[in-house]
Specification:
alpha/beta, five-stranded antiparallel β-sheet, Hypothetical Protein Yjia, Chain: A,domain 2
Length: 323
């Protein structure tokens, strides 16, 4: 039985991992791809942003697959393999705070995974605009160090000189990986799939103890705050609050993302943010029974009470709703 090729997509928060995943799924419509999406918070946003597909999409929320939900990752893969469904490849999108080493370990040491799956490559997406600040976090360093292929993303937002300096910084952390500069992860599938780039010997040179049993510990100052709300939001109040928030605590906001239910809007509003950079666009139309705002903040020393108060203040006033 031939092994199923598996690609791991990693990278720090907001780098563009889900964008890359969507490109892969769009360009491999003739294949049956089993997708596992891992999010750090209990409210999963990325799973809702994956393009409509016939493929199996499994969401693992409320923890990283390098630690608290690592057993869930193994169980999810076991379940998909035992389901009898045709699977041509696996693609796993890790949390932005995941350490790739324990994930690699799972594929090497678990008997079923090592017998049935073949790690093809670890793809790390790097945010050209914010990576220098993000390298203060151990996870960002590890994600680059263990990569087989690095996508230096969002280069269109930076000068050529800055992008070149960032590439030199990356090369110091990982002398072996191929580096490709991209905008919105625009890359041909043939450059990232079936490339046979993973080599355990290289990984052991980076970390001789990668196969030893050890637990990944996250920075205790980093946390996730998430809210759900059924009442529609006022777009003017929401955008004003978000702008003020990024100005006040943007340095500590690693990631913001949400699917927003704006009053009197037929389509959901999808927004993303990294530090003080915000981007939003209309999404899919709402179905009559699914209007719900879900929003997630990941950052350092977050004040949940302050965030909750600001978020709830964006609800549409009742008289306006009645009219």
């Amino acid at each position: 039985m031939s092994k199923i090729k598996t690609t791991i997509i990693t990278g720090f928060l907001g780098a563009g991992k889900t964008t890359l995943l969507n490109r892969i799924l769009t360009e491999t419509e003739s294949e049956r791809v089993a997708v596992i999406v891992n999010e750090y918070g209990e409210v999963g946003i990325d799973g809702k942003l994956v393009v409509s597909t016939q493929d199996d999409v499994v969401e693992l929320n409320n923890g990283c697959i390098c630690c608290t939900v690592r057993d869930d990752l193994i169980s999810a893969i076991h379940g998909l393999l035992r389901s009898g469904r045709q699977i041509d490849r696996f693609v796993i999108e890790t949390s932005g705070l995941a350490d790739p080493a324990p994930v690699i370990q799972s594929f090497i040491l678990d008997e079923m995974l090592s017998a049935r799956l073949q790690l093809d490559a670890i793809l790390t997406v790097v945010d050209a605009r914010h990576i220098e600040r993000q390298l203060a976090q151990d996870e960002a360093v590890e994600q680059i160090s263990f990569a087989d292929l690095i996508l230096l993303n969002k280069v269109d937002l930076e000068s050529e000189e800055h992008a070149a300096q960032t590439e030199r910084t990356i090369r110091l952390l990982n002398p072996l990986a191929k580096i490709v500069c991209t905008s919105r992860c625009n890359i041909e599938p043939r450059e990232i799939l079936d490339i046979g780039a993973f080599d355990l010997k290289n990984i052991l040179n980076i970390d001789p103890f990668v196969l030893d049993d050890h637990e990944h510990e996250h920075d205790q100052a980093v946390s996730c705050v998430a809210f759900k709300e059924t009442s529609p939001l006022d777009p003017t109040l929401f955008n004003g609050w978000l702008s003020r928030l990024t100005q006040e605590i943007g340095q500590d906001l690693f990631r913001m993302k949400g699917v927003i239910n704006f009053a009197n809007e037929a389509r959901r509003y999808v927004f993303h943010g990294v530090h003080m950079t915000l981007e939003g666009r209309p999404g899919k139309p709402w179905m009559s029974d699914e209007r719900l705002t879900e929003i997630v903040f990941i950052g350092r020393n977050l004040d949940e009470a302050m965030l909750r108060h600001g978020f709830l203040s964006c609800r549409m006033p009742l008289p306006a709703l009645a009219s």
